[in-house]
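Hello,

Following up on my earlier ticket. Below are the two sequence lines again, exactly as submitted.
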Amino acid sequence: NAGVTQTPKFQVLKTGQSMTLQCAQDMNHEYMSWYRQDPGMGLRLIHYSVGAGITDQGEVPNGYNVSRSTTEDFPLRLLSAAPSQTSVYFCASSKGLAGELEQFFGPGTRLTVL
Amino acid sequence: ILNVEQSPQSLHVQEGDSTNFTCSFPSSNFYALHWYRWETAKSPEALFVMTLNGDEKKKGRISATLNTKEGYSYLYIKGSQPEDSATYLCASYTSGTYKYIFGTGTRLKVLA
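Thanks for your patience. The regenerated structure is below:
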C-alpha cells in the first residue's frame, strides 16, 4: 500500500492564481481530511469528508473548496490564492468515522503564495 | 471551536531522563483522544488512540493515561533517547462532530 499520497510537494503561486492540491489513499478509508500547519498554530482542519459525495467544513474553510467523487481521492482547491494561504498542507485519512481509529497523514505540500 | 492545550511548549532533557507532557481538552461530549509523534520533515504518526476514562496505553518506553472527567491526558517517556526528539501532538475528537481539534504540540529535544 502506498498509504496517503499528496502532490505536489512544493508549489509557488502568485496572488489570485488557482490550483488544486491532490490527495489519494489506497486503504479504502471512509474519512479524509485536509489540515494546514502554520507556526505556533498547530494543525487546523480545513475540510473533511465521511465518504464519497459527502464533505463538510472544518475550522478554517474560507478560500478552499473540496469534493469527494471517489473513496480514494480528496482534492483541495484554492480558488484565488492569497498570501495568507502560505502554509504546509496535510491530507489525512482514517478507517473509522467516530474518532476511534488513528489518522494516517500524507507527506504534506508546502505552498507559498507571493 | 473547542480548545485543546498542550504543555509545556518545548522541553530539553538529557539522554536517560524520564519526562512527561500534558494535553488538556474539553470534557463535554468527549469521544476520543489521539497522540501523534511528529519528526521534523516528516508527517505525524499515530502513537495512541484512547477512548475510555482511566485508560492507559503503552508502546515500548512511551505510555499515556487518560482522564475524561477532568479533561486531561499525560504522555510519559521513560529513559529518553535522542531518537525520541520530535513534536508530540494530541487531538481531541468530540462525539458527533467528525472533527479533530489538535493542540499546538510539545517539542521535545533529547540531548546526548
